[in-house]
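Submission checklist for the structure archive. All mandatory fields must be present; incomplete records are returned to the submitter.

[x] Identifier: Sugar-phosphatase
[x] Organism: Microlunatus panaciterrae
[x] Residue count: 222
[x] Sequence attached
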Amino acid sequence: MDLGTLADLEFEAVIFDMDGTLIDSTPAVIRSWAAWASEHDLSADQLAGFHGVPAAGIVRRLLPQERWAAALERINDLELNDVGDIDVLPGAAEALAVLPSGQSAIATSCTRPLAEARIAAARLRPPAVLVTVDDVRRGKPAPDPFLEAARRLGAHPTRCLVVEDAPMGLAAARAAGCATLAVSTTTAPDLLEADAVVVDLSAVSWRISAAGVAVRPGLSAN
């Protein structure tokens, strides 16, 4: 497996997206948004292309302003009440376990209550730094979540590696100046614009040294 330019770099920190990168919440997401769309007379086609975008951004794109508040409250309720079959994706728990707490973070488009509910449902042990859409002025595809995660870690964004599964999230990472590693868990590899693309986190390993964090091919990549 070719990690391209990533193989030659040492990073101050690694920032992970959550849904589709660390955990598989796809069934719950589909159920919640399908119910919400039906209630608002929206089609599946109208929901397409928003993976990785905060719920508020989707609501504002699809509905008139006078309906925003109620519609956002409704989708938040639907998602918070549907966390029954969320699982950890391959390699995710191992990555978080090996990376030092001060050198890893999660930056997600979820609200904090939803992020915490999904992390708990997946029984994932998160890093100390968790940045949600509640912590920033603008969500993905704006760079704010990754810039805030880097700030909290005391790392320069250009010395951070972002791991993402969504085109919008990768766009946010690039805008923040971060290096990018994409996992093709929810999106076809040819649609992922990143420094390297792998099937999931089991395809890489992590080397920790005084110089920082390096990403290397994992056993499943052979």
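[x] Structure attached
Curator remark: The CA atoms of residues 93 and 124 lie 7 Å apart. The helical segments are 26-39, 44-47, 55-62, 68-80, 92-98, 112-122, 144-153, 167-176.
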